[in-house]
């Protein structure tokens, strides 16, 4: 589903990704871990065309993003890829239902009734049916993040990207968001998740990628990476977070 080849990415004169290559198979769940500033968000954003490679390429579901202009591919990738951020980014002046229905109506052109129906189905899935006419300001952080997930799913993406989706939440409500994500994984959604939740990575990921200073240091099945890391840097990082 995703092939990243020799990806380098710079902000101005500063290169922050120094040649990343990896693949994500259809239905695979990959967790990316690593210290702050190691390039996790930049890598994830590049998979949605929010950052452009300076060298190398990213191919998603057959569409290639490289250093050059390719508007059609960029639009195709944005349709195929849903993204959920740490800060939920819901539109405060729209109801929950309208937040979810907006992109399907504007981008896919589906009618109001069908968009509402899609929103109802997705809210049931994330356990928030009763909130369809609420405004984002009336939701807890965990509820807002579940709405953000439903909103991303409304475009029926082939891939879902999550950038620290629980980092802004109080500890007691982290679980409700993780369990929605676990449900998605169980349904076979292809997912890339940047997270500090090592329990989630261990339980749900098919593969864990450890990044440091703009490079992939090590990747493997969770039992390998957590149980028997090969690299000294991985061991040092895990020693601090586990
Ligand atoms: P992480 O998500 O692992 O904390 P980031 O991908 O956010 O790391 O950042 C990687 C590096 O790129 C950091 O040194 C950060 O300061 C830098 N960086 C990120 N975004 C920008 C930007 N828009 N402009 C300049 N530098 C940036
Ligand atoms: Mg980040």
TrEMBL record:
<dbReference type="InterPro" id="IPR003593">
    <property type="entry name" value="AAA+_ATPase"/>
</dbReference>
<dbReference type="InterPro" id="IPR003439">
    <property type="entry name" value="ABC_transporter-like_ATP-bd"/>
</dbReference>
<protein>
    <recommendedName>
        <fullName>ABC-type polar-amino-acid transporter</fullName>
        <ecNumber>7.4.2.1</ecNumber>
    </recommendedName>
</protein>
<dbReference type="Pfam" id="PF00005">
    <property type="entry name" value="ABC_tran"/>
</dbReference>
<dbReference type="InterPro" id="IPR030679">
    <property type="entry name" value="ABC_ATPase_HisP-typ"/>
</dbReference>
<dbReference type="GO" id="GO:0005886">
    <property type="term" value="C:plasma membrane"/>
</dbReference>
<dbReference type="InterPro" id="IPR050086">
    <property type="entry name" value="MetN_ABC_transporter-like"/>
</dbReference>
<keyword id="KW-0813">Transport</keyword>
<keyword id="KW-0029">Amino-acid transport</keyword>
<dbReference type="GO" id="GO:0005524">
    <property type="term" value="F:ATP binding"/>
</dbReference>
<keyword id="KW-0547">Nucleotide-binding</keyword>
<dbReference type="GO" id="GO:0016887">
    <property type="term" value="F:ATP hydrolysis activity"/>
</dbReference>
<dbReference type="InterPro" id="IPR027417">
    <property type="entry name" value="P-loop_NTPase"/>
</dbReference>
<comment type="similarity">
    <text>Belongs to the ABC transporter superfamily.</text>
</comment>
<dbReference type="InterPro" id="IPR017871">
    <property type="entry name" value="ABC_transporter-like_CS"/>
</dbReference>
<keyword id="KW-1003">Cell membrane</keyword>
<feature type="domain" description="ABC transporter">
    <location>
        <begin position="2"/>
        <end position="238"/>
    </location>
</feature>
<dbReference type="GO" id="GO:0015426">
    <property type="term" value="F:ATPase-coupled polar amino acid-transporter activity"/>
</dbReference>
<keyword id="KW-0067">ATP-binding</keyword>
<keyword id="KW-0472">Membrane</keyword>
